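Re-run with default settings, no changes from the original entry. Doing this only to confirm the output is reproducible before filing.
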Amino acid sequence: MPKPRLIVTRCLTDDVHARAARDYDAWLNPEDRLLGTDELIGLAAGADALLICVSEKLTRAVIDRLPSRMKIVSSFSAGTEHIDLAAARAKGLIIGNAPHGVTTATAEIAMLLILGACRRAPEGEALIRSGGWTGWTPTQLLGRRLDGKVLGIMGLGRIGQALARRARAFEMVIHYHNRRRLPPAEEHGAVYHGSFESLVAVCDIVSLNAPSTPQTKRIVNAATLRQMKPGVILVNSARGDLVDDAALIAALRSGHVAYAGLDVFDGEPRINPGYLGLPNTFLLPHMGSSAIEARTQMGFEALDNIDAVLAGREPPYRVA
């Protein structure tokens, strides 16, 4: 009996490729070539399943062109904003994601951004690499300790809660804002705020860990930045479009925001050039889940969805 046909649109880890090739007639992309829409549709014509990444935008027009034999699209991501879920439901196409692999790795990157911003690590490294370091001095690159600082987490979901656990080890005080308050047993002493404005008004450090939605897009803007304490530190390991770049750059230049640690950017990889000349920024190229363990787990979760659907079972990580 022939194996089901699977298209894997990007180059994933060796373990994911090995499992896909073992269980499917798999088309792989070891060169990691970005596929155009027409090429993707052509590959999908004879396929039973697609394993895509956030680089593949499944708009309604693209979904309408997928073959009727296509049973499932499983995304190598936790977020699904690159997929028109309503169009998929209308076509009867099952959509799955990979929600758990990103959790620990992204929380670690958020903690790295907090530490790097508070202790001015980018400036220290630049000083060494430029040859400008002349030796230790008592007031050189003074930063801030983490103990006792109020960390405000926008989005206390899986990643936000993993970040909170790590921050507590640094003796930080956790406040948070969600659309809905968590049960007390899941808060572990964190202080809930009913609005983002209320949260940021009391925080020394603000971490964005929420998905991109119509309600969260540009939630960091000129108005909400004014609500923040002077000298606040802002980190974003969630989605770039949560931040109004022009407003944040102005606040960094004025010193109202002392430092920003950013792993994601609006319109990436095209980064607003205003960030590049600012010494008080810690900038990373979307490395949140960039750990071998995380990326392999993500691939396996995406394949778990495909395995289940093609065997006639409910997928474990279904979103539509």
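The first strand starts at residue 5 and ends at 8. Residues 16 and 299 are 6 Å apart (CA to CA).
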